[in-house]
Design goal:
By secondary structure, this protein is of the alpha/beta class. The protein folds into five domains: 113 residues, no CATH class; 174 residues, Rossmann fold, CATH 3.40.50; 70 residues, Helicase, Ruva Protein, domain 3 (Orthogonal Bundle), CATH 1.10.8.60; 187 residues, no CATH class; 101 residues, no CATH class. Helix content is 55%, strand content 7%. The protein is built from 33 helices and twelve strands. The strands form four sheets. A five-stranded parallel beta sheet has the order 5-8-11-4-12. β2 and β3 form a beta hairpin. α4 packs antiparallel against α5 and α6 packs across α7. The structure holds adenosine-5'-triphosphate.
């Protein structure tokens, strides 16, 4: 088999341009090390990395090869075998003339590793935390051009590190002084005088001769920040400096020469500015002898966490982020890039006081943008994401807190479900919630569904989903995929996980028309003491705002037109779960000294489900029952001959209303 060194156009077809550039740089270096310098080991490992070939195979091939041609011939059979085995890094190609050859494999991960190694050699770049191949490729360009004399243009959104990179390039260049100037901050005439200097008396206020920054940076670097805002009057003068290395101080005729190195940065699109006539094309060309484009943070998802954890550690925090925070950080756009991320993490480090970072520790603006408090659907989604947090569902004590933070922030005033559009949105939210797909809405394609289903392990959820996804909303192939998956799941029942149950309960509470169904589900749900009560709480909150009869046209979820069954209908729990019995229940809980603190804390949260949770967790059912019975007896004794129960204010059977409880408390106080 013949081998082929990849011609440029082949590489370009296989790699994006920026990677192609880095690959050929690495390849050239590897060959140099293999055949021209004594650093054989480096060359061998680079070749192994770039081609995804085991190091020992490369070593063996190199041992018997005298040149590149021979080395590649030795390696070709191995690459050919890989190509036949379906390794898509290796390809067999037909060369015109009927010759068949094997191309050099291109291993992107290997290239990334090489770039990381390359970056680590430059301590000036240590402050750049990244494992992103796109940024690493840009840093490689910076390293390679740092020691040259040519101008560098760094572009990228605000906060991507343009200023930091300019400084790093200066350090790597070994030049003397670094003189930065922000071209936006000052007027054209002042900028001119700052850059070129001026002669005493050349304008009002020029009380003495002044040397400009260009002169100061004679053996150093002049950094023109925000160069896109450079005043048009100054542009031709700067062009002259770059082109002819000549300039004149303001108010002077003598021509001065300079050897300063220029680095410019901007977050503006200079090509657009050229088209609009705001920036000179020839100046842009001169400035961008070497152009480095820094990618925005949202395109470097892995870097978000690397940087966040580093910033947190610097702020003496463990660097731990809860899953909901990770989800939020992934879906947030980070318009201010690394600078914004660093600020947010420093804030969170203080707010969390050393605890793992939760959503409530992040700056408000960030949370609001990531989760706009829009409609019910987005609230459910948010809750889904919180529930998706593995650490939350494991930790009994912290779960209510994390959910509560979310509920507090987003359920203060849950908007009613007002129209069909919102109901549809809600169904969509259910789908996403069920898929536990963090981040942005999932386009429900067959492929997406299958990928999502691969993450699901819940029979009950799947079955519920199948019900919810009526054929009118989703294409048949999606429904049949779901059915097939359900069948497969049913064969492998291991007990549905809590989350699935919770979601099902929520769906049922909102969707079922049959009150018995709801009671049954509630009872079932209440067996789970960690997640479910919170879901019930959420469902309750939502329910309170869906009391109005729904328009008959609503088909996506049939919202029951009547008032929902109260909690108290749940057999065995009705008395102590009824919110009107709260005072009695609270009393019962407080009466048990051992649980005072925790119960007190939970009770403050003002939710029947919390109370239920406390009661269950501490086996207080009997105490509660007794108290309820006692107060019921007391009440009937008091009301019997003289007072008939007032209409409309009577609690369900066996339930005591506030007046009676208050009366009871007053009696106690008197005694
Ligand atoms: N990859 C990175 N890893 C760690 N810190 C980074 C990274 N990129 C940038 N930073 C840090 O982010 C901060 C902002 O960077 P810098 O001020 O250089 O951005 P900029 O693009 O010049 O912003 P602006 O356009 O607003 O001037 C700096 O503290 C810098 O060290």
């Amino acid at each position: 088999m013949n081998i082929r060194v990849l011609p440029e156009e082949v590489l370009l077809a296989r790699l994006p341009v920026y990677q192609y550039r880095a690959w050929s740089r690495a390849w050239a270096q590897a060959l140099h090390e293999l055949f021209h310098t004594p650093s054989l080991a480096e060359g061998l490992s680079t070749l192994a990395l770039l081609t995804g070939t085991p190091l020992d195979a490369v070593e063996q091939a190199r041992a018997s090869a005298r040149g590149l041609e021979e080395l590649l011939k030795e390696l070709a059979p191995d690459w050919e075998r890989r190509a036949q085995d379906g390794d898509d890094r290796c390809r067999i190609s037909r060369i015109p003339g009927g010759v068949v050859g094997v191309e050099i494999p291109v291993d992107e991960e290997g290239l990334r590793q090489w770039l990381l190694r390359y970056k680590r050699r430059e301590s000036a770049l240590d402050r750049f935390i990244t494992e992103d191949i796109q940024l690493l490729c840009q840093l490689q360009v910076a390293i390679d051009h740092a020691r040259s004399h040519e101008s560098v243009l760094i572009t990228g959104e605000t906060g991507t590190g343009k200023g930091a990179l300019a400084e790093a390039i200066h350090v790597m260049s070994g030049r003397e002084g670094f003189s930065p100037i922000n071209c936006t901050a000052i007027t054209a005439s002042l900028l001119e005088s700052e850059l070129f200097g001026h002669k005493k008396g050349s304008f009002t206020g020029a009380t003495q001769d002044k040397e400009g920054l260009i002169a100061a940076a004679e053996n150093g670097t002049l950094f023109l920040d925000e160069v896109g805002d450079l005043a048009t009057e100054v542009q031709p003068k700067l062009l002259r400096v770059l082109r002819e290395r000549e300039y004149r101080r303001v108010g002077e005729t003598e021509v001065l020469r300079t050897q300063a190195r220029f680095i410019a940065a901007t977050n503006a699109n200079l090509f657009e500015s050229v088209a609009d006539g705001r920036f000179r094309e020839d100046l842009l060309q001169r400035l961008s002898a070497c152009h480095i484009e820094l990618p925005p943070l949202r395109e470097r998802q892995d870097d978000i966490f690397l940087i966040a954890e580093q910033v947190l550690r610097t702020a003496r925090h463990s660097g731990q982020l809860t899953e909901p925070v990770r989800t939020l950080m992934n879906r947030y756009e980070w318009h201010g890039n690394v600078a914004e991320l660093s600020d947010a993490m420093r804030y969170a480090a203080v707010a969390s006081r050393g605890a793992p970072i939760r959503i409530s520790h992040l700056p408000d603006a960030l949370v609001e943008e990531a989760y706009p408090p829009a409609g019910t659907a987005s609230q459910i989604l948010l809750t889904a994401q919180v529930l998706d947090s593995s650490d939350a569902s494991k930790d009994y004590d912290t779960l209510p807190e994390s959910l509560d933070a979310v509920l507090e922030e987003h359920l203060k005033e849950p908007p009613p479900i007002a129209n069909n559009g919102e109901v549809d949105e809600l169904v969509m939210a259910f789908v996403q919630l069920a898929f536990m797909w963090p981040g942005n809405p999932v386009p429900l394609t067959q492929a997406a569904l299958e990928k999502a289903l691969a993450q699901l392990r819940t029979v009950s959820l799947l079955s519920e989903l199948r019900q919810q996804l009526s054929a009118s909303h989703f294409p048949n192939d999606i429904i049949s995929t779901l059915n097939a998956r359900l069948g497969a799941e049913l064969e492998d029942v291991k007990g549905p996980p809590l989350l699935g149950l919770a979601i099902q309960v929520l769906m049922q509470l909102l969707g079922s028309e049959n009150p018995d169904d709801r009671s049954h589900l509630l009872e079932w749900a209440l067996k789970f003491q960690k997640v479910v009560p919170m879901i019930v709480h959420l469902a309750q909150a939502l329910r309170q705002h869906t009391e109005e009869p729904k328009p008959t046209t609503v088909t996506a979820i049939s919202v029951p037109p009547t008032r929902p069954t109260p909690f108290a209908r749940v057999p065995g729990t009705k008395d102590w779960l009824d919110p009107r019995n709260r005072p009695v229940v609270e009393k019962a809980v407080r009466a048990t000294g051992g649980v005072k603190n925790r119960a007190g804390k939970l009770l403050k949260l003002n939710s029947a489900s919390y109370v239920a949770k406390v009661i269950r967790a501490h086996d207080l059912e009997t105490v509660c029952e007794e108290l309820v019975q006692a107060s019921r007896a007391e009440r009937s004794k008091r009301t019997q001959p003289s007072r008939a129960p007032r209409k409309g204010r009577q609690a369900p059977t066996g339930v005591q209303h506030d007046d009676a409880v208050k009366g009871e408390e007053r009696d106690e106080a008197k005694q």
